[in-house]
Write the structure tokens for this entry.
Amino acid sequence: MAQAPTAPAPAAPAATRPIRWTRPATWPPEVLALAAYWVAGRVLMIGMIRSGRAEQAVEVHRIYHDWYRVLRTGTFPVDDVTWQYPPGAALPMLAPAVLPFLTYLQAFVVLMIATDALVQLALLAVGLGRPGRSTGGAWLWALALPLLLGLPYGRYDLPATALAVGALLLVPARPRLAGTLAGIGALVKVWPALTVLGTPRGRTTRQAWTATAASALALLLVLAAVFDHAFDFLHAQHGRGVEIESLGGSALQVARLFGWPGRVEQHYGSLEFLGPYVHRISQLSLLLTVAAFGWLLLWRLRARRWTAATPYDAALTAVLLFTLTSRVISPQYLVWLIGLAAVCLTVEGTTQRPIAYLLLPAVGVTTVDFPLFFDAMKAGGWQPTAVILLRNGLLLAAGAWSAARLWRATVSPPPAPTPGLRPVAAKPAAHDADADPDPDPDPVRAA
């Protein structure tokens, strides 16, 4: 007797099915194009470093390597006014020791390339295949970083930027881990602490801010226990003046064209202006920094609307404001802004899209300033003055525009509905059994 065919078992509900990741037969053309550009751009950057004539390569080979030798003895640099960094900066300085078969410069550059690639992969992974997300951030990072030539691989700003990018991307799903990365970044370069400023109110903010403070304090205690003179950097930082590329320096460059008698000298590790009114401009910069901090606090208190993009947008605005009001706007500061702008562009609803695009010419002009016009800027003249005025003007416009767009999107009341029109309720989307039940876990809280 023939046996009746067995009925197939009912399919498991979509929410309980295990997620199976399958490798695509071919990579999307966009990913291949992005990978090709990334490789080409990084070959250019490596070539600039390998030439041996790049100033940043000389700085790594001499200054960073000298600090490395001192740090290996268990102490931070003593009576060295050029050491102006938080104690966590010892970590990237000592990191080349993990590659003992390379020279210090070679190992440092290899680690910076790896950090660059890690940021690129993170931005691409977040932007691919998720509703409301975009690969625009991955493209911005790939396109903008080579505009600075070899500079990103000859400074330790890439690790700090990677920590900040990682913290922002993890805020929605892992706020404690995000705060931990932000706290470590704060001990490396201070500014990554600003990445948690725009976290949504409630549990996300409590977890992220607590983790930031706890990780920063824990790392500080460990470094203070392992190294001597962990807080000497505060004295050197306090003595800094007005650097020639800052906003205040731009004003003094113009003043030199009209007879101001000041001069430029190597002072506290950078080229600074010395002469009449310099101290007042330095004090004004500090007052503007306090004012920027006050504005950010006011924004935080008055913000009422949060979206998936708000934490990213707030981080870019905050770092832009603190960069603008700094007594120093070194070329490597643009690495920070590129990274934060790239994170903003991973979300389609960001308010900072035009600011991200405005930063591209600012990065290009920064390279014209350094290294092309840097020597001329020491002596003064209308050409280097015009270059630095253009660069800082673009940054100033970006900062003001960024703050205005963030405020308008989160604080200003929404526009009133048009009289006579009633909002139409959106029809619920048809349930797709194969769809991800939580395609984007970003929390949206506006308590």
Notes: The CA atoms of residues 30 and 373 lie 36 Å apart.
